[in-house]
Predict the structure.
Amino acid sequence: MRLENKVALITGSARGMGRAAAELFAREGASIILTDIAEQEGVETAQSIQAAGGKALFVPANVARAADVQHLVETGVSTFGAIDILYNNAGIMPAADTSVIETSEETWDHIMDVNLKSTFLCCKYTLPYMQQQKGGSIINISSMVVFLGSTVPQEAYGVSKSGLLALTKSLAVQYGPMGIRCNAICPGPINTGLLDHLWTSEEERNRRLQRIPLGRFGLINDIIYFALYLASDESSWTTGTWMTIDGGISSNYF
Ligand code: NAD
């Protein structure tokens, strides 16, 4: 098993890619600290991992709040004894995030809090334990949108995800000498509920599909198996970098 004896904290793990990553990492031998604002689905995910023979603990938390994150990290460490993998996955993409003119200050702040401040907080409270352990792997979920402009703007989302790349590189440099790695993944459009509000018609869907050289939208497994590599010791000389996984969209001029 690729994650035997490791403990992984995965944010936003009640649904979507976070849930699938929790299930995959558990099958690969890791003990999982799940967290989400969606309590019922989080508890159900932990129970399904346990029913399959894995180790999992669900701690409800809004990862944009310092007190919640501190409690989450302390509860996880007191249950499993360590955090070897921090997978910053929780994120939102509200429909109210559009152009700079139309986006409200509240929407901007909310997206920055959930997508960017959450990762700052999770790193802030987890890194001291990783320093004591002299090792760890941090995985930040950014997005392909950080590399491209779009005529359908989502300004706060793109800026929040760009901030994650800056943080990724800075943490890699500061904590590399302590054996702590930090990398990012930049997914293209993946088939989860997150994008439903963008794809309101078949025409909207096809407009995006035509831009994808590999001819399909992404699957959850396209992302989480790369995260598994970053979480495992197989990537022990990989830090401060990112992988764009987007079916080739960001290489497509015409
Ligand atoms: P999702 O909506 O299915 O899952 C996100 C999870 O985060 C949900 O369970 C949600 O409840 C949780 N969450 C939201 N706010 C939270 C908070 N404040 N505290 C704790 N948990 C919170 O979305 P997904 O598609 O699985 O996305 C996962 C990550 O991947 C996000 O960061 C997203 O921005 C990123 N991403 C997704 C796509 C895509 O096409 N789906 C593309 C690029 C990047």
In short: The longest helix spans residues 105-133.
